[in-house]
Amino acid sequence: MKKIFLIIIGIGCFGNLLSCKSSLPIEKAVLTFAPEVPPVITRTSPAKVIVDLEVQEVVNQLADGVEYTFWTFGGKVPGKFIRVREGDIVEFHLANHPANKLPHNIDLHAVTGPGGGATSSFTAPGHKSQFTFTALNAGLYVYHCATAPVGMHVANGMYGLIYVQPKKALPKVDREYYVMQGDFYTKGVFSEKGLQPFSMEKAIDEKPSYVVFNGAVNSLVGDNALKAKVGETIRLFVGNGGPNLVSSFHVIGEIFDKVYQEGGTSTVQENVQTTLVPAGGSAIVEFRMDVPGTFILVDHSIFRAFNKGALGMLKAEGPENKVIYSGKEVDENYIESQAHPQAGLKSEPSPLKAGRSGATIFENVCAMCHQQEGQGLSGVFPPLAKSDYLSHLAVRDREKLVSIILKGLSGKITVNGKEYNNVMTPVSGLSDEELVTILNYIISSWGNSGKPFTLEEVKKAKEKIESR
Ligand SMILES: [Cu+2]
Hints:
- The protein has about 475 residues and is α/β, with parallel strands linked by helices.
- It is about 20% helix and about 30% strand.
- The chain has ten helices and 23 strands.
- It has helices spanning about 1-15, 120, 150-155, 200-205, 305, 360-370, 390-395, 400-405, 430-445, 455-465, and strands at about 25-30, 50-65, 65-75, 80-85, 90-95, 105-110, 125-135, 140-145, 160-165, 175-185, 195, 210-215, 225-230, 235-240, 245-250, 255-260, 270, 275, 280-290, 295-300, 310-315, 410-415, 420-425.
- The strands form five sheets. Strands 1, 2, 3, 5, 7 and 11 form a six-stranded mixed sheet that branches. A six-stranded mixed sheet has the order 12-10-14-19-16-17.
- The protein binds copper (II) ion (CU).
- Copper (II) ion binds near residues 104, 147, 153 and 158.
């Protein structure tokens, strides 16, 4: 009796591929949040894989003190990582949380079919949709929402990665991680605090205020850094949700031993420094940790890394290998008489010693950071104009003010209610007279006021600072 039943199923399977689903083993896909990746699939034959994904509209941190309403696949940006195997039949369930405000859908670049699933998955809040596809092509694919206005849904974080593991799996590595870049468009400038609305204008102009990995500034920094041990092999599944920017993905201090360009499975490039990850595209990169240390992940369009958030870390622990990398071997004085004379740069008489006016010193030395009118650069260089920090020091701690110029300043400070955490390097080459001049210039310009410094006061402060 049992045998006959099986035969009947077998015949049905011949005529109609879909009814074959019933003869495949059924499993539920393991989904993970970045930077984790679901485990390697060890099956050697296809399965019917059930994917359950829920769209959630959530308020979360975009940066320290900056909140944003993200639209997500699963509750975070990027969406949950999906892993299936080439040849699997994927039964996809998309749920739209009842508390959401908008309809959504999903376009998976791994789908062969209209809209990559978008047309079959349009789902109103409080509804669920289902469609099924066969994972015909192996590779690393982006998925994203494709509901109008598409750009806005993507800009709000509606993207993630689906990896269709090839029948012959890629060589085993010690660790796999999920890293996905995206650009964000807020009404306020970078690091402006509070709940930030989406700016359609900036999005259309392709001028993001944030470019980040894994949905937030610092999502891969400090305690959240990726971890590895010396001697291990690492595979990064790198995606770019865009919506606009192309990523020049680079890991400072590492060379990618292998790159599966554009997330394909066979074109392997070796020994690559920076790989291009298109918007709506991906790359798989592999390397071996040869030495310990902190390796910085960046979009090498470098202002994005240091001024917009596209910076992550991979921390490798383990024994040093001084042959591969020595660390600093020499740090010695290099004085003017040893240096080659530089064309166009006269050193005699030194322009730094010429007794310049305050305005000139400011323009020559300080303005490149604090800007022409002393207004600073938001989030990077604090203002000197109307700076409450500066006027406080001019009254309460005049020695500190002298020391900022002589010794520099680093660490968190708050100027006019905004936080800065940057480094001012010591200013060298000022005579004592010029030091007095520039101090008096900054405390009396742009609406600042304070008691003028005397040469005697500055000399005394300098002695104290230098004897510390
Ligand atoms: Cu959407």
